[in-house]
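dumping the sequnces here before i forget
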Amino acid sequence: MAKNIYVETLDKTPTPMGQYELVERKGIGHPDSVADALAEEVSRALCRMYKSEFGKVLHHNTDETQIVAGMSKPAYGGGTIVNPAYIMLVGRATTYVEENGKTVSLPCIPEALKAATNYLRKTFPNLDPESEIILDAKLGQGSDDLRGVYQTSKFLANDTSFGVGYAPYSITDRLVLETEEYINGPMKKKMPQTGQDVKVMASRVGRDVTMTVACAMVDKHIEDKSAYISSIEHLKDLVYENALKIIGDEDVNLILDINTADDYDRDVLYLTCTGLSQEMGDDGSVGRGNRANGLITPFRPMSMEATSGKNPITHIGKIYNILSTQMAEDISKSTTPDAEVLVRILSQIGSPVSEPLSCSIQIVTENPRDVKKWKAEAHEIAAGYLANIDKVTENIISGKTRTF
Amino acid sequence: MAKNIYVETLDKTPTPMGQYELVERKGIGHPDSVADALAEEVSRALCRMYKSEFGKVLHHNTDETQIVAGMSKPAYGGGTIVNPAYIMLVGRATTYVEENGKTVSLPCIPEALKAATNYLRKTFPNLDPESEIILDAKLGQGSDDLRGVYQTSKFLANDTSFGVGYAPYSITDRLVLETEEYINGPMKKKMPQTGQDVKVMASRVGRDVTMTVACAMVDKHIEDKSAYISSIEHLKDLVYENALKIIGDEDVNLILDINTADDYDRDVLYLTCTGLSQEMGDDGSVGRGNRANGLITPFRPMSMEATSGKNPITHIGKIYNILSTQMAEDISKSTTPDAEVLVRILSQIGSPVSEPLSCSIQIVTENPRDVKKWKAEAHEIAAGYLANIDKVTENIISGKTRTF
Amino acid sequence: MAKNIYVETLDKTPTPMGQYELVERKGIGHPDSVADALAEEVSRALCRMYKSEFGKVLHHNTDETQIVAGMSKPAYGGGTIVNPAYIMLVGRATTYVEENGKTVSLPCIPEALKAATNYLRKTFPNLDPESEIILDAKLGQGSDDLRGVYQTSKFLANDTSFGVGYAPYSITDRLVLETEEYINGPMKKKMPQTGQDVKVMASRVGRDVTMTVACAMVDKHIEDKSAYISSIEHLKDLVYENALKIIGDEDVNLILDINTADDYDRDVLYLTCTGLSQEMGDDGSVGRGNRANGLITPFRPMSMEATSGKNPITHIGKIYNILSTQMAEDISKSTTPDAEVLVRILSQIGSPVSEPLSCSIQIVTENPRDVKKWKAEAHEIAAGYLANIDKVTENIISGKTRTF
Amino acid sequence: MAKNIYVETLDKTPTPMGQYELVERKGIGHPDSVADALAEEVSRALCRMYKSEFGKVLHHNTDETQIVAGMSKPAYGGGTIVNPAYIMLVGRATTYVEENGKTVSLPCIPEALKAATNYLRKTFPNLDPESEIILDAKLGQGSDDLRGVYQTSKFLANDTSFGVGYAPYSITDRLVLETEEYINGPMKKKMPQTGQDVKVMASRVGRDVTMTVACAMVDKHIEDKSAYISSIEHLKDLVYENALKIIGDEDVNLILDINTADDYDRDVLYLTCTGLSQEMGDDGSVGRGNRANGLITPFRPMSMEATSGKNPITHIGKIYNILSTQMAEDISKSTTPDAEVLVRILSQIGSPVSEPLSCSIQIVTENPRDVKKWKAEAHEIAAGYLANIDKVTENIISGKTRTF
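..and the predicted 3d for all of it:
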């Protein structure tokens, strides 16, 4: 059996059964999520370039995109971007290599710009990347030493660090995650006047869940105030209906609020030109929003590491957060839906990424005795992930894995 | 008695008595800490300006400083900064106000630049802010709505959010925190060749603490390799000696490593021109390093909010993190050193900052019955803080309160 | 008769008959010309926006675009842009107006970015504006006072300044101008491997004209060194053939050199990825290249004013340079081809643009007595231009008038 | 006798005796002059660094500094810089060299920043470079080929180009030049309320000279409107008195205007915080202001080349403009003050700088026969300059030679 994998029970109330829960998701159009997405797109583009040129990923960490808010004047029927938001892609990359005594420079910044623009164009239909943002990039060579670790065949941990993950999502988690995915997914065709900057927060006290959705509305699809008001009502109906589907049989009492900061009397509305609050007043940066499972969950263990933009080969802060979440999800499937599975993986700097110092799997359940029967399978699942860690990396590069 | 303050016992093993503990501190010269510090200095400068002009703090959140690494060629006896690091101060501020129908513009960026330069000059004696960094600033007006909350006399929470804090520091915590403070404090005179970029990490397994210090060395004070090696040895002696004082009577077995990435044979050393790794290969941004108590403590509850740079009037992510830490510290003094005090404060958007939705105080101790006798005092301490929340703000503005 | 128009003869040898002539044209892809073009495109876009919003052009001068060279690695068959060139659009504009006590902000920067990107995409087929340049913009409000002059119905001169123009083009002028236009025009289909950065210089000593063409070649259309060499030979043949057409019956002895800095033995070639030398090593800025007639002619009177990007309503440095050139051309048609017509218009700050302090028309000819018979018509032509100065402005805004 | 030096008479009226003359000087605080100065300071700093490291000047052309105006709110007694001006140092430099198979990087940007800041601090006492400007720098490696020319011992012309100069200064020239030097020199102690942004223009019609001075006033030294008005009156008196000294016995009728755009009734005044119009509304760039003799003289031959910031070793546009002016001045001393000496030097790309294609000296005088007796000396002076061209370079590097 693989070393350093520990499965144990943990004697506490599973979070979903506790008194309080607070869960948040910054939707794909929130400035922090835009920063995360661009950081990750840049990393993926570099990975593809390195693999195509050298057959392997070279050192980089492009996890520092900074978004500076612009200025806009939204108006019914279509307003104006007065000043574009400024987006600076920042990070370390292998910008050149020495080959046979010659320096070969690599087009990191052009690849980064291309990937970022493509993402913005594809994801935000109401934003014109050419005139409504200014896109800058400062990617520099990393320090010599870090690049050294890439010369071995087995990838070595870049740091003494750790990752944490849990499963399954609680009903509060699912309400938050799936509501945002609904608004920015299947619902968009019905309501193109909803923007991508959607923030969903749910606080649960006992069985009462208050879910608050803040959704930027797109001015060109809204002709006047009454159209705005009826849009919000329509949005509320659709989200509520969808939430009921998510809840299903669960014993949850849902209260839903949409755009609570609106004040119709004072004409304070959440109206935007692009559906993105970066256009006016909201800066963003990497690692300040959702964790690798798509949520911010203060009542659960979380890693503070920015996952997006980190290299998917040696960066523990990225790999172990994703890995522990995936392990937890798989293990959870082999237990009962009520059990909370916590995975915490600790690295040892300089040791192979596939050989952590410890991989601790804790199963929180109301019947601790059950853990015994799940232990072997949990161990096997974890060992399987560690043995096939390349697969985790591949899925990150191909974009199959969520990082925010 | 003040509403919404709950004191209870929590049935778990206090963290310091658990099997594992992992604690880290990014020293004041780490790029993430430099970003934190500049963000906070800018906020404080704006507070002072607003108070001097208007008698009160106006809306701002300057928590987005971005540092892009430069390029350097360190060398024994003194090397060269080849390309300066680029530092961009970013955030939202009240850049103008309307008074009597006239627009009055406020010098936010000049005040920010001044504060940032002063801090850099005062804190990093080996850095020339004039030629070894490029300092830029993009501070824009926030969205109209957020500025509204400042027009009431009682400050209202900007968000549904929360803060967490704990006390007392464990011995692992103290080793990490006080080691960095020693190296960047009293020890500096003895060893000016140590830079400010000091990263301290300690992992405890049982009673064995492995503390790893990575300390950037300053090339101009080191004439050759043997001077470097003996400096590291000297540093190790001093830090070890100081650590023994910190440990005192505690039952701890300490292993100390300094600059483990060095490889003397391959001439890989942690040599810098400025004592700061931002000069070569390390980017930095706000909220990615230490929490408000100065530490990163994955085995304790942590808030992910960036504390530094946020406004100290309405921003829950700042105020409640600092407040909960200070409450915990005070409450802890009235219990036993072995008890772990956890404070978690939850806001209610739109309600006064001094009236949280809940202020939960959990006391973890091996003798849960003792909690009963501490309850009243804990409650009183918490109520006192909430009643005098202005004092918390004042201490932040005057720089008396740590934010990273 | 219109006041202040003076027609006189000038007793000197017409420049085309003198011993020396030196004429240069920086083609449309030269970095200084790219800067000129972008500055002018931005001004035109602002004019259109102002006219569409307010029915008139508002104050602006966007004549400060700066291009910072990038880094490229051209290679036969197609190389790589390693670092994009950085292009910053700079200038003053009316970024907001006060209307009925309200501030209306105008989208100057988005309009500027759109105009600039469109121009680049349309003009430089081998450049990808999305990934091979970084486009930034800093357009700020001008000082209050200058904006005042726009409130009158007659536009007033912004400065005590002047413009100069001459006609007709000498044969040396035409060789330079028409060679560049040929290479970047009809010839492109035959030789797509020629880039847009074409610099043509001709020095004439007596009847001997040495014309030197430096033409950036586009790597992706050139598969190897021999293809490069034969391309240059082909280019030389085509340019020579075209030059013979330009020369026609004129008594000129032409020597033609192409890419003289090439050194085939040392493999020094003028190979580029984009056909633009801004990709590697050549910065550019406004007003440093061609004058308003498309040429640099050190042996003729020239104005040093940057014409491109200036507002076409009140800016003497722009309007009078264009006006004097157009006047000279028209007047020249009514004289003999051998006569040199010089026009110099001097403004009076604060007076209407259509009422210059003096408009001096000098006719240089070998038979000074002829001037007498041309005088009245010359006067009439000049008066007509001044009376219809709005037409000059309109043609600038619609892009019909050359500015570089 | 040195080859290619031609001395001849030119049959025209010397400019100072013609009917019209227009002369302008942008003072040291005008944004275009600030750009020129910084470009030149950077070049000089690089020259010093290269000489100290390698014993010789390496390739660079740093002639592209761009100044983007800031925003200010001047007020009697001292106003506020609201947004700093943004200054970007741009150009090409030798940023690394290959030595013994190793790449040695050179600190071009830090040296540039240091030189620029020192100049600003030294020259503009009312500007705080730390908070009232943002100083950026983008200096990149030039293209390989240009660097090649530095490997020879004799420096070769970088281009087919030319320089022009004339002497002596006319009385109109001297009024303009010496008035600015007076205001920014000996007068400053008497009137610290005058800023450095001083623009002097003189137009002469016959013997009537109208001199217009626009001088930015410094708000902190001016307590109210009447103080402003009396300052302007005082300034006018001092400048007038000084102008009379300059005029001496010359037959000139002087009209003097100061700050003609002021409108006391509408409270339109030329009041600034820093004495520099870059603080509000005025951009600046290199090569757009004074020629190498300190003046803009549309009625004289001028080169359009930006002199400041060019390398002083091979750049014809710099060296020949300075050289021709110095030659003309020396030759002029050996003729009569009434004679106008014009020098025009033409380079041959690839030939040594000291061996121009032609050096044409034209002496314009009312008694053309006198030229004969001056010819030999003029020739000798010119030959002496060409033989000692290194001296010209040295004086540029040491800052003894004016470039704007």
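The helical segments of chain C are 31-54, 108-123, 144-148, 171-183, 225-247, 316-333, 371-387, 389-397.
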